[in-house]
Amino acid sequence: MTSPRGQIDISGVTKRFRIKDRPLLALDQISLSVAPGEFVSIVGPSGCGKSTLLRLLAGLERADSGRLVKDGTEISGPSLDRGLVFQEPRLFPWLTVVQNITLGLQNQRMSRAERRRGVAEHIDLVGLAGFENAYPHQLSGGMAQRAAIARALVNRPEVLLLDEPFGALDALTRARLQGELQRIWAHEGITMLLVTHDVDEAVILGDRVVVMAPRPGRIARGVEVDLPHPRIRADDRLVRLRNDIILGLEADEASTNAQRPAAA
Description:
Residues 8-241 form the ABC transporter domain. The chain is 34% helix and 25% strand. By secondary structure, the protein is an alpha/beta fold. The chain folds into 2 domains: 1-81 and 160-258, P-loop containing nucleotide triphosphate hydrolases (Rossmann fold), CATH 3.40.50.300; 86-156, no CATH class. The chain has a 6-stranded mixed β-sheet with strand order 6-7-8-3-9-10, with helices on both faces. Strands 2-1-4-5 form a 4-stranded antiparallel β-sheet, covered by helices on one side. The mean pLDDT is 90.
């Protein structure tokens, strides 16, 4: 029997950028392990490096120091075993839903029948049956994001990285898709890492919430969410966890502001 795949190990990762010739420390000595099949939510204030960390895991950026490892192999670039979903669906407007999702299989060695079958399965998985031949402009925002999730999953990656996937949606659509993502995660059994500003979303979806402190980005704490799925947002236990995380974020921000030099 093969062991589960999708283990992520991040050790002492530091990332710097240059902004107008000035160095900016975006991530400072980040260390984190994610078990195969675990759903980890990452929250923190704007500019704390959440999305940068996801881009490093996707292989779209390189760390200045430290290691990012998946299943014992160092991440050195993009790979089909790691899917990525952005805040915007990024669908090609001249292609239908089927054609956009099929693009996710362009580097796979599969027969035409296998491609059709895989795409059809994932259209059903995200609830887009009946919209196979629709173009992006004919879809609602939530439907377009469903198509983007299907495109990321059609390769059957072992890790799915989600960068604020519901951030541009209205509250009702967002809540509906949160429920859908819980269902998809339970069905697929893969590792998921979600970056979000929404603490409610983080505790509803995550097995664990990783809280990042303000710049330079570093992990302030981890919060276990030991509650069964699917979760109900009105659950008192979730509400208490949410409030504790928000209070911690506020305390981190106040501490950071107190350490900054006063303006001249």
